[in-house]
Specification:
CATH class of the largest domain: Alpha Beta
Distance between the termini: 51 Å
Helix content: 25-40%
Number of helices: 16
CATH superfamily of the largest domain: Aldolase class I
Number of domains: 2
Largest sheet: 7 strands, parallel
Length: about 475
């Protein structure tokens, strides 16, 4: 039997962990009017219920600003006065939106005498909650014993603990991130950091491979531009799915076409393209994703709106020299670095083009010049002029749901421990499958020399 954990269960689990009191709007309303919710509906109607709920909610928010866990139902979001109250409460306290998948909500509503909502309203209500919440948690389904038709809070406490343990673990991970107890960031002390971008349109396809793929990795990359949908609801469950199966942190990225991504290039006045991009980046922050990458050439309004709500998420500012006009030894390199700092980034990534191996030496010189700067730098050269003997190869590949073909014998550990093992691979072999390359030490103050060819027009990839 499959179940999803809702707001009442999560509120109870959280209150118990914190030693706080849990306040449930439904329970308080029933106590105040001395009748059940279903009886209230039968005797007074849904409109009267919404009005009564609003009175209870606004009173609870006003009189319990701290050390209380308040569980309010989905009906509360429909009235504007309630949304105003929640946004005001959000200014000094946390408001967490618990979202369940549409099919689970539809099944629940169908057998409920309390909820009159059309399941097709699920997306609209989720959007309204998003306007008022600080963070969002997607509650994935859990498997309950086959002989149980329902799981209620009256069930045996030990049984509930076992059934809901995966959800509890996921939810506490978010709470620890929010409060800064454990932000799950990559260590920056004498540690090489490696990440792997999952280029699937649906991360559920990656689940069977995650254990093998994660060996030796420090974090995952989530490419928002490659996902099957730009709907924030879709992103919520994609992130929840990855977290259910891996404790590694993640980087959320939306690459535009000019930076070899899939999202259309945008101008500041192109609202139809700008708004979804901004919304997705902001939603990544609501989900508590550890790192969010912003391209240097995103419209300034988009960058500011995301950075202003970053919380404990680290912002990575990335500059791509699309026109091949920048040189590491020129004044423009320091200007770009300073502008990335000014945009509020916590990490800078600068991607230039190498015309000769000397350009790699210039990269090293520039990286050294900003090694004591306000934020760490990942410096990358694109190009074919590189000598493999000076490089430490860092390559790993994952296809979009397809099996490995031309370099299936290579594992992450074998590549990083034996970089000479595959020096003989010819350039054309790299174009046979999607390739993700892992820059060396992406989140430290160390100097990085990295040649990264993200498409088959470049020949080799290296970092040292």
């Amino acid at each position: 039997m499959r179940h999803t954990v809702g707001k009442t269960t999560l509120a109870s689990i959280t209150a118990k962990a914190l030693g706080w009191e849990v306040l449930d709007t439904d329970a308080i309303l029933e106590m105040r009017y001395q009748m059940s919710i279903s009886e209230f509906i039968l005797s007074r109607g849904y409109n009267a219920l919404r009005s009564a709920e609003s009175e209870v909610l606004t009173s609870m928010l006003r009189n319990n600003p701290t050390e209380k866990v308040i569980a309010c139902g989905s009906r509360s979001i429909e009235l504007e006065e309630n949304r105003i109250a929640l946004r005001k409460f959000r200014e000094h306290s946390l408001v967490i939106h618990v979202i369940r998948d549409k099919e689970a909500v539809a099944a629940y509503v169908q057998k409920s005498v309390v909820h009159d909502q059309d399941p097709d309203e699920w997306a609209r209500l989720a959007m309204l909650f998003r306007e008022c919440c600080s963070f969002e948690f997607a509650s994935l389904t859990v498997e309950a014993p086959q002989d149980r038709e329902d799981v209620s809070m009256e069930a045996n406490a030990n049984e509930l603990s076992v059934i809901f343990k995966p959800v509890e673990k996921d939810f506490f991970r978010l709470l620890r991130f929010i409060h800064g107890v454990d932000t799950n960031k990559v260590s920056t002390h004498h540690h090489r950091s490696y990440f792997l971008t999952l280029t699937y349109d649906d991360l559920n396809k990656a689940i069977p491979h995650l254990e093998d793929l994660s060996v030796g990795l420090d974090l995952w990359g989530i490419r928002g531009d490659l996902l099957a949908s730009y709907d924030p609801n879709y992103l919520s469950f994609q992130v929840a799915t990855l977290r259910r199966h891996s404790t590694l942190p993640a980087i959320f990225t939306i690459r535009t076409k000019s930076t070899m991504g899939n999202y259309p290039d945008i101008e500041a006045d192109n609202a139809p393209l700008l708004e979804p991009l901004t919304s997705l980046c902001q939603h990544a922050l609501r989900l508590g994703i550890e790192y969010v990458e912003l391209q240097f050439d995103y419209p300034r309004s988009a960058i500011e709106s995301v950075v202003s709500m970053k919380g404990n998420t680290s912002i990575i500012g990335t500059y791509f020299d699309k026109k091949d006009i920048c040189r590491w030894e020129g004044p423009e390199s320091k200007q770009v670095y300073n502008k990335i700092v000014d945009m509020g980034a916590d990490v800078a990534i600068m991607v230039f083009h190498a015309k000769s191996f000397e350009d790699n030496m210039s990269l090293r010189t520039f990286a050294s010049s900003v090694s004591s700067g306000p934020i760490p730098l990942v410096a990358i050269n694109l190009g074919i002029e590189v000598s493999l003997k000076f490089s430490r190869w860092l390559l790993y590949s994952v296809g979009t749901g397809k099996d490995f073909t031309s370099i299936e014998s290579l594992s992450f550990s074998s590549v990083t421990s034996s970089p000479t093992h595959w020096r003989s691979l010819r350039p054309y072999q790299f174009s046979r499958m999607p390739i993700n390359l892992i820059p060396d030490r992406p989140f430290t103050n160390q100097k990085i020399l990295c040649l990264w060819p993200p498409d088959p027009s470049f020949d080799v990839a290296c970092a040292s």
